[in-house]
């Protein structure tokens, strides 16, 4: 092989290598950067079902039911075997810990839970309404991460309460609606405050 052919082959290999690298990087970046998203795997030996009750549910008020359906990107088909992870502050706006937490539990606190959807895509958490941060810099919110069977985990827009005065019009228009709108309207159903949110996988998610 003469020198010119060697140079051509070298450039060809570099181009192919670069394309493969970029493709792999995009696959790894579903949703973009996500600090703490790996916490979705910290359920340890817990058998995940479609319903979870978070610590503090019975001790705090107002009690809250968080429920809805996880849908595929078409917004119609229920998505099965999707893990949904949530966490939030206590009634004082703090990510409360006991001191023996490991992993992301040190940051996310004790009020967190996991479910896995069934064939109907339904999910439900029983918890309590969190408070805004003590400095009131953020509206009340519940963080959420999802893990599809064939995708890297990614975060969605937080659950935000429509009746929260800190959820100003300016904040509302800046929301990216990852997975669909996270703004929910609390209503009393069967004696418990209930918020409903259907999640659309991949909606407004980068590199999906």
UniProtKB/TrEMBL annotation:
InterPro entries in alphabetical order: Intradiol_dOase_C, Intradiol_dOase_core, Intradiol_RC_Dioxygenase
Annotated ranges, domain Intradiol ring-cleavage dioxygenases: 63-150
State the top-level EC class.
Answer: oxidoreductase
Q: Which Pfam families match?
A: Dioxygenase_C
Keywords noted in UniProt: Dioxygenase, Oxidoreductase
* PROSITE patterns in alphabetical order: PROKAR_LIPOPROTEIN
**Which residue stretches, if any, does this entry annotate as coiled coil?**
none
Signal sequence span is none
Q: What is its EC number?
A: 1.13.11.3
Q: Tell me a Gene Ontology molecular-function term this record carries.
A: protocatechuate 3,4-dioxygenase activity
Does the record carry Oxidoreductase as a key word? yes
Report the family membership. Belongs to the intradiol ring-cleavage dioxygenase family.
Name of the protein this chain belongs to: Protocatechuate 3,4-dioxygenase beta subunit
**Which species expresses this protein natively?**
Chryseobacterium sediminis
């Amino acid at each position: 092989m003469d020198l010119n052919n060697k140079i051509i082959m070298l450039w060809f290999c570099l181009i192919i290598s670069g394309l493969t690298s970029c493709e792999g990087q995009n696959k790894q970046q579903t949703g973009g950067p996500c600090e703490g998203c790996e916490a979705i795997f910290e359920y340890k030996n817990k058998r995940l079902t479609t319903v979870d009750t978070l610590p503090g549910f019975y001790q705090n008020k107002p009690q809250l039911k968080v429920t809805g359906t996880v849908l595929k990107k078409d917004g119609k088909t229920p998505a099965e075997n999707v893990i949904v992870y949530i966490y939030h502050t206590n009634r004082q706006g703090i990510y409360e810990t006991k001191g023996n937490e490991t992993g992301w539990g040190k940051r996310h606190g004790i009020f967190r839970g996991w479910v896995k959807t069934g064939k109907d895509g339904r999910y439900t958490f029983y918890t309590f309404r969190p408070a805004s941060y003590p400095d009131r810099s953020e509206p009340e919110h519940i963080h959420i991460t999802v893990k599809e069977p064939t995708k890297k985990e990614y975060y969605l827009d937080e659950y935000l309460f429509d009746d929260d005065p800190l959820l100003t019009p300016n904040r509302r228009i800046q929301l990216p609606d990852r997975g669909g709108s996270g703004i929910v309207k609390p209503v009393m159903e069967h004696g418990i405050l209930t918020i409903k949110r259907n999640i659309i996988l991949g909606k407004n998610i980068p590199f999906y």
